[in-house]
Amino acid sequence: MSDPLERLRALQGADLPVHGGRTLAYVYDSGDPEVDRVAREAVAAYAASNALDPTAFPSLLQMENELVGFACGLLDAPDSAVGTVTSGGTESILLAVQGARDARPDVVRPRMVLPATAHAAFHKAAHYFGVEAVLVPVGPDFRADAAAMADAIYDDTVLVVASAPSYAHGVVDPVTEIAAAAAARGVRCHVDACIGGWVLPYAARLGRAVPPWTFAVEGVTSISVDTHKYAYAPKGTSLLLHRDAALRKPQFFASAAWPGYTMLNATTQSTRSGGPIAGTWAVVEHIGDAGYAELTDQALTAVDAIVACIEREPALRLVVAPDSTLVTLATDDTLDPFTLTDELVARGWYVQPQLSYADHGPSIHLSVSAGTLTHVDDFASALGESVAAAQAVGPVAVDAGVVAFIEALDPATLGDDDFDGLLAASGLVGASAEGDLELPSRMAEVNAMLDVASPAMREALLVAFLDRLQRPTR
């Protein structure tokens, strides 16, 4: 009989490293092995526990309440504030939108006002809950245009959104002005601080300039903050805080309309593993307030060093000065951003390419953690080498025939034959003897092909790709 754990370790060898500070997307590394040990032991201890029923597992209820209490202290929450532990930032955002919708049963066609830079999870919520997303263009500094957002609020608006910071560019929206406009119309204002919620309060304590965005801002009614990001907790937890219990109440779901137990849920989930909750609680207890201040200082010092590296490279520029731990850079005409991404990945630094949007070209996104600080000299060397290598390779050009093929496709009706035809035309992604998709080791040409497609076509192509990837192994 084979050892499943041995196979598990072998499978994991193909994954991105979650420690070492060089994976600048998807994972957040404190750089402290003891944090990882505490988290793993707590997750294992509670892996079979179920937070569905707080009367059955009161220890999980206590942990959740203590986590919310810790966050209330960070976010200047009033004594009336309440909160919920969710499975991640997307669920926190979904619940904020669902609660805002259900709080206004008088509105037949509810809408929410979003800056164009708001996280895509709000679009997912719009899709799921039938709340129209009204997108408002941002200013040249990539921050929300508060005046334009105020003008977009109507009687059917149930929610107004701001980011602290926005994911793509790492800047904080003018929350004070946005929340005031929402409050003047009697509309909820949600601040998406999934990234910044556990960083910006400590940044302010460290003397960094931080625009106001917490519950100290009048008119902010709810805030989402992810503990699996800069609280350095295990994957699978976020917090959604409301200014008072009445604002949270529409989020709850109960049903006695069946012969089983009366279903009662605080989130979209029913069964909730106690593992992530216990792991998060244990990590927050272990690191503590002073520890988070130190980790934030390390992360922001790493950001400063990376910004300096970018500014030393003539072919690179910051898209905008970062307000937090997210850095976005762009290239000049001598340097292809997708090739630069490949070169950095080849040197052990995973960075995230971002495709063109509206009038802005492609960029490269970095989520910097405390664990990155000890490796910034290596990053500087890798960046210089990668820039030189990418310039030597030259820009990626998408064949005119492939461009024409993409333009002729209808994203609304894209089928398997269309997708297979594009694969054949591009020559970028092949199929194995078993029929599985095989990606090239370098992704510049794939990203360049996606970049010439419209956003709707990108969505259709990537959905088709995901559908092809997720097929049973027999």
UniProtKB/TrEMBL annotation:
Superkingdom of this protein's organism: Bacteria
Record bears the keyword Transferase: yes
Listed GO MF terms: aromatic-L-amino-acid decarboxylase activity; pyridoxal phosphate binding; transaminase activity
Modified residues (N6-(pyridoxal phosphate)lysine): 229
Keywords tagged on the record: Aminotransferase, Lyase, Pyridoxal phosphate, Transferase
Needed cofactors: pyridoxal 5'-phosphate
Pfam family, one: Pyridoxal_deC
GO BP terms in the entry: carboxylic acid metabolic process
SUPFAM superfamilies, per database record: PLP-dependent transferases
Keyword Oxidoreductase: no
Entry's family note: Belongs to the group II decarboxylase family. Sphingosine-1-phosphate lyase subfamily.
The protein's name: Aspartate aminotransferase family protein
Organism: Nocardioides glacieisoli
